[in-house]
Request: fold
Amino acid sequence: MVLIPSTMTASVLRGVKDLIVEERPVPVPAADEVLIRVHSVGVCGSDVHYFQHGRIGPYVVESPLVLGHEASGTIVAVGADVDESRVGRRVAIEPQRPCRVCEFCREGAYNLCPKMEFYATPPIDGAFCEYVLIQDDFAYDVPDSISDHAAALMEPLSVGIAAAQKGGIKVGDTVLIAGGGPIGILTGQVARAFGATDVVVADINAGRRALAAGYGLRVVDPAVDSTEQLGAHVFVDASGATPAILNGIRSTRPGGTVVLVGSADEFPLSVPEIAMRELSVTGTFRYTNTWPIARSLLMSGLVEVDSLVTHEYGIEQVEDALVGEGAGNSLKRMVLPGVRTVENPHVRGTA
Reply:
């Protein structure tokens, strides 16, 4: 029997750049839910944006909010309708709760559910805390070969999988990715696993290019080397930078696909260029049914994520994790909710 405390420590955002650490009651699982003791949580750009600006588009922080949605942990209790054998299982969390009955859910596109409740999206609390709830089938068992960090990073890996699926990446394709950050690197690895023979990452930052090259991806400096003759079957924007998007569109072959994962609000789009070259331009919003794929990619070794982790922080250091305090040239910064403070946030010789 697992001893569960009555209270837990949580990092709570009260407003723009206003974080506190407080004690909260440990939540109780509903009939279809599991209670998870959180081991590892990745810091996402959306967490940083909520901290710095208090909103993303229509989602506004109007009441105290726990950030963090890239999470893993161990099931410590289950609801009445869940098999008790799940207690003790290590899991990766798909951090969303669709309604399951709307037309989008019934069609399998539950990421578009208008009633979606998503971790760390106001007003739904996230995982920068010691315990969280999720519906049983959105807590995916992971083997011991997958670390706590890697299990948490199945969430951004799922973003890369969704982008590759939306682009229809297949054997023999040439793929161009703008942005050598975590999403770009993960998408590049997924593209290669899906059979792409030439995966090119374009980034103006030399450090990011070096990191991407370390994963066996071909890199270019778009400020120096033109990619317009590349003739990519699929272009994926993971930068959110307008010049990168426009360059990527020009670098896509006729009949190719442009997938927008980055966060540029607006950019000028040449309709004749799209129409006369019959380019398909699409976006991605989160993911559906990607966790089993992510798990298989990690178990097979086709995708590697542990080396993306450069820094670790305790629950009392979430603000440092969000602003990158002491984390120059970081890729993935991770919060350990079960740890108060980490004396040295650098891991694996990244200092």
Summary: The two ends are 41 Å apart (CA to CA). The first strand starts at residue 7 and ends at 15. The chain has ten helices and 19 strands. The chain has a mean pLDDT of 95.
